[in-house]
Write a structure and sequence with these properties.
The chain is α/β, with parallel strands linked by helices. Helices cover about 35% and strands about 20% of the residues. The strands form two sheets. It has a five-stranded mixed beta sheet, sandwiched between helices.
């Protein structure tokens, strides 16, 4: 398994996928690719909440993963939730192959503010690094600026940086050094 794939789940512009691919290429020693957009499963919509259950979307991603998948990150515009939380910026399988982020609450418009593409780019990259970090065994970090820190509201996302702290970056380096890495970080395909 040599590829880190990114996939739109539902309707999504290509900008976010490009931002994520560029950031992923900096940190992860895999070929970065994409798969065709996936439809949002009908059963994912929770009418009582007006949100989509992230587990259903992650299941759809898992079913769509090509055989050479090391990791697959889904990106969606819909508002995500799980039964025990009112919303999610994203979700991932800890040390597993599938992760998902939502742009819905990363957009300024969600908070009644004018659109801001640069703010959206920064938030998207931070949340993609967060969820992909989980797939490589990283847990929540105590350093508030690290993308692996827990964010329960948007101000916490804004406080993060677009790079892992020393501890989390070291964990990833050790992890990738223990396995055969198919490509050098930075190779974007």
């Amino acid at each position: 398994m040599t590829n880190l794939y990114i996939a739109a789940v539902g309707s999504l512009g290509s900008e976010a996928l490009h931002w994520i691919a560029s950031a992923a290429a900096e940190w992860f020693p895999f070929r970065i690719g994409s798969i065709p957009p996936l439809p949002i499963p009908d059963q994912a919509y929770d009418r009582s909440r007006g949100q989509f259950q992230s587990v259903e979307l992650m299941h759809a991603l898992s079913q769509a993963a090509p055989p050479d998948t090391a990791r697959l990150l889904g990106v969606t515009e819909v508002d995500l939730a799980i039964p025990m939380l009112t919303f999610l910026f994203g979700q991932a399988q800890l040390d597993g192959p599938v992760a998902l982020i939502s742009l819905c609450r990363l957009r300024q418009e969600f908070y009644g503010l004018p659109p801001d593409l640069e703010v959206l780019r920064r938030r998207t990259v931070k949340e993609a690094l967060h969820e992909l970090g989980h797939t490589f065994g990283l847990t929540h970090c105590a350093e508030p600026k690290c993308p692996m820190s827990l964010a329960t509201h948007i101000a916490m996302v804004d406080e993060k940086e677009e790079r892992y702290c020393t501890r989390c970056a070291s964990h990833l380096s050790r992890r990738f050094a223990q396995s055969e890495t198919p490509v050098s970080p930075g190779e974007l395909r």
